[in-house]
Amino acid sequence: MAYHQEEKKEFNVNNLYYLVGVVFGLLTGAVLEVGVKWIIVGGVLGLLTALLFVTVFVRGREQR
Predict the structure, then answer these.
(1) Residue 8 phi, psi dihedral angles, 5° rounding
(2) Could you give the count of Cα atoms lying within 13 Å of 49 in the half-sphere of its Cβ?
(3) CA-CA distance, 62 to 45, in Å (whole number)?
(4) Given a cut of 90, is residue 13 above it in pLDDT?
(5) Domain total in the chain
(6) Could you tell me which of 63, 14, 19 has the C-alpha nearest to residue 43?
(7) What is the model's pLDDT at position 7?
(8) pTM (2 decimals)?
(9) 58: which DSSP letter?
(10) By the number of CB atoms within 10 A of the CB, which of 5, 7, 15, 41 ranks highest?
(11) Which domain holds residue 24?
(12) Cα angle 29-32-35, degrees, rounded to a multiple of 5
């Protein structure tokens, strides 16, 4: 008899950081009320900020 072990999938928290960065970047661009172009720029800047946060701060915690 072969036993089947269920693999547990871990929730990837990094995707949550990216999502929050994009959403709040879009909201920041929308609050500026300059135009649709700035909403997109805000989303990109939010994504880049989340990427920096994950790369510098979150990755460093795993080493401790």
Answers:
(1) -90, 125
(2) 14
(3) 25
(4) no
(5) 1
(6) 19
(7) 66
(8) 0.71
(9) I
(10) 41
(11) 14-62
(12) 75
